[in-house]
Amino acid sequence: MNQTSKSLYDRIGGRETLTVLLRHFYADVRQHQLIGPIFNQHIHDWPAHLAKIGEFWARLTGGPSDFVGSLPFKHAGLGLDARHFDVWLGLWEANCQCYVAPPEAGEMVQLARMIGRRLQSILVNEEVPERPQLTVAA
Questions:
Q1: What is the pTM of this model?
Q2: Mean of the per-residue pLDDT values of the chain
């Protein structure tokens, strides 16, 4: 199998890389002054959350996954606005740059942008402009 026919999941290093990425990303999220309190108020079992979100990202990247759930439903009623999405995406971009090799880091960021735009348009009921492209160093 050549590199271009492998799933993004395989190209990033599978579950091992996702686990490292998510562990560091959510450590940053939990400590952030704007979004940390929201996450900490609503997530009481962090190991279970990391496992579930790992299943979500495995499915999204083409890997094996048992994910079942609805992102918009889980985020409804949290009072999220554009600032929250911008912080979330900024932390995701920074962590992808640290823990995922380019160009796959860029692909992971694009998936997160898509998720953020979709969630924001559903939760905030507005059209969300596309953010500038991330340039991942080679």
A1: 0.84
A2: 88
Question: How many CB atoms sit inside 10 A of residue 124's CB?
Answer: 14
Domain edges within the chain: 11-123
Burial 80-100 (b: 16+ CB within 10 A, else e): beeebbebbbebbbebbbebb
Residue 53 to residue 135: CA distance in whole angstroms: 25
| Distance of alpha carbon 125 from alpha carbon 138, whole angstroms | 37
CATH 2.40.50.140 fits 11-123, yes or no: no
Long-range contacts of 42-49 (CB under 8 A, 24+ apart): 42/78
